Amino acid sequence: MDRYRSDTVKQRSLRIAQIAPLYESLPPKLYGGTERIVHYLTEELVKQGHDVSLFASGDSITTAKLIACVDEGLRLKRNCNDPLAYHIIQLQKLNTCVHEFDILHFHTDYLHFPFSNTLKIPSVTTLHGRLDIPELQDVYNVFPYQNLISISQNQRLPIPQGNFIKTVYHGLPENLHHQGDGEGEYLAFLGRISPEKGVERAIEIALATNTKLKIAAKIDKADFAYYEKNIKLLLDHPLIEYIGEINEQQKTTFLGKAKALLFPIAWPEPFGLVMIEAMACGTPVIAFQNGSVPEIMENNVTGFVVNSVAEAIDAVSRLKYLSRGGIRRVFERRFTAAHMAENYVNVYHSLIDDTFKNVPRSSIPILNKPA
To answer: Could you tell me if 297 and 344 lie in one domain?
Structure first.
C-alpha cells in the first residue's frame, strides 16, 4: 500500500530539482515519452508556484531555471559516441548546487543511485521503463532504500524488493489536445515500430476489418533490421499508410480524426502515454491486456481491452457505442498534468517531513529562507 496520500493539500512552495534524461530536449522535438512527461511536470510545478530548476539539454524550452548539461538532446546530436559522459557531467552540475534544493526528483533510472544514496537532502526517482530485466535484481538488492515512484502498479511486479512509495500516473496539460470527431474513418497506430509494440497486429486488424490504418511511428536503429524483415513489405498494401514520426501539434489531428487508436502491445508496458493522448482527443483505444493497460483503460468506456486479434477485430465493430465526450471526461478526471503534479507535490512534502523527523531540530534548515 502506498505510504503517501494522494489528496490535494495546500502546502508551502518548494525548491525542486528536476533531473531529466539527456537523450531528448524538453519537450522532445519528436518521439520521447519520458522527456515529455518531465516537461509537463516541470511546467505545471512552476505554474503552481514552486521554484524549479531543470537539469536537461541546452535546447530545452522551459519556464523553470534551465541547467544545461549538454548543448542539445543526445539522440539528435551528431558524433555523440558516449551519452553516459554527459549524464556524469549532469550529476556533477547537480552536486555543485545540491544544497539549494528542498527535494531532488530524478528521472534518470538508477544511474544516480551511488550519488543520491549519500545525500541528506531527500530525493525520489520515477522509474519510466520496464523493470523485468534480470540485472535490475542486483541493482535493487544493493540499493534497497532508494525512494521510488512507479508509473503503474504493474510496473512494480518484477522488483518487489524496490522501495516504492507511490504510483503516480502520467498526465498531460488539459488543453494540449481537444476532442475530435473521428471523421477520418481510419484506425491509428502511434509510437515505435518494434516487436513489443505490435504493429503487425495493428495491420492484421485493419486488413481484417477493411479499414484504413495510418501508422505514425519512429524506427530506432536497434529496430531497423526488424522493420526491414517483418514490416516493410506490409506497408505496401493500399489500406496501410506509413506517415513516420509526428510532433505534438500533429497528434491532435491525427488522433482526433481516427476511429480508434490500436495499442496491440506484446510486452509489459509500464504506462503507455499514447493511451491518454488518445483519451484527451476523445478517441477510443483498442488495447491488448498487457502491463499497465487494465489500470489506465476503463473497459467499455475509454475503449476495449482485448486478449487477441480476433477480439480486437470484434471491438472495431463496437466502437460506435462509445461516447467520445465520455472518453474526454475520463481524461480530465484522471490524467491531467495538474493532477499528476499535485500527487508529486504530496510525495515531496511527505519525504521532506520524514527526513526532518529523523534529524535534530537545531540542524533543520529553514526552507525558502529569504535572501
So the answer is: no
